[in-house]
UniProtKB/TrEMBL annotation:
Matching InterPro entries: ARPP-1
Protein name (record): ARG and Rhodanese-Phosphatase-superfamily-associated domain-containing protein
Start and end residues of each ARG and Rhodanese-Phosphatase-superfamily-associated domain: 21-318
Domain of life, per lineage: Bacteria
Amino acid sequence: MTEMTALDTLVPGPLSLAGHRLGTPQQAGALTMVPISGPDRPGYVPPRTGLKLSRVTGYGRLELRNGAADGVAIVPLHIGYVQDAAQNHALCRSAFLAPGQKLLFEDACCVQQTQGGYLTGRDQWFFVLPGELRARALELRGVHGYAKLWADIAELNQRCGLPRRGHLEQILSRQRPVLTQFQSRLEPQPGQVGALFLIDGRFAGLEICPGPRYFAEMWPALACFAYGVAAWRAEPAPAPAAPYSAATLAELRGALDRDRAARLTGIAARLAAAALDEAADVQEEERYLDLRLSTVTGPHLAGQVVTDGGHAVYASLFAR
């Protein structure tokens, strides 16, 4: 693993990413993923196996349950749930759930304009809102109104060349075979707890999880939907591969090392140019024991972070 100083200064506010390291970048089309290794923190419930959708009590009112006997659940920022023949919902904010606790989110948003029916606790799969919708969704946290994201969804559909409708499933479901390529072409590494994402060479987001299992359960939703949608829209034309000018295995390894070092240097330069460490507003939203959930709003990024004693436990930050 190669450490980049930019990681320690990337997240504004009173928290530390000490102990987190960036690995070798991987690229699939317009999407670059830089693995992040770091501490495996015990006591946190992963989002797929532990956090469950309990019920929807009305449009825009979604209840989640921490089904684990022990461990706190950190609700992933902008998680959403999909079921056939039901109105799919997404959340505008993160939250804490104690073991066995149920929590009703009354500021959820419907993402399927004309579909009726309520989500239930039966089989379900989850997504994370595409990056193009996340800044607006974060602004709408605490705002009641199940239709509040439909206009933004319709605009995103139009930009994707799809009918201008408030139906996110036009992307999530109908384009899923295209979007899953990013999940399959990028390979999470052993011990990976997060990732830095760039789209077309520009910062797109930073995701930090409490441990490798939590990240592994988040990976499909992040790669396919949170960042895959914008990468799909920015997909470049295939470029011919240029072979390395190496005559021996040692020369080939040296060329690979130089190529990786150059890519890391380029990413560091782009992060520095993006000025992501500029002063940002950090607003505490919620507490659970020693954990603090805060919303970060800066000139070039926004999102939410969870800290324990100032150290980042969870972070979901995206370009704005």
